Amino acid sequence: MTNFDQMRGKAKEAAGKMTGNDSMANKGRAEQSKGKAKETAKKAKETARETARDVADRARDSYNQ
Asked: Which parts of the sequence are annotated with region: Disordered (predicted)?
């Protein structure tokens, strides 16, 4: 799952390498890292939400028995 920050960062890195602009290449790598961090945070949020639902379902099932 690639997000916009990762794609834009990859393009900046490639452009920086092609033109010999190390600053642009570094900024591109930084944007890719930012995109990966956002992706990881989103996955963690989804996992936490699923876990909370599971706990709530188990508690409700336990109460109803």
From this structure: 1-65
Using a 10 angstrom Cβ sphere, with 0-12 exposed, 13-18 middle and 19 or more buried, the burial of residue 34 is: middle
Cα angle 41-44-45, degrees, rounded to a multiple of 5: 85
Segment 42-57, tens digit of pLDDT? 999 999 999 999 999 9
62 has a pLDDT exceeding 90: no
Domain assignment of residue 54, yes or no: yes
Residue 50 lies in a domain: yes
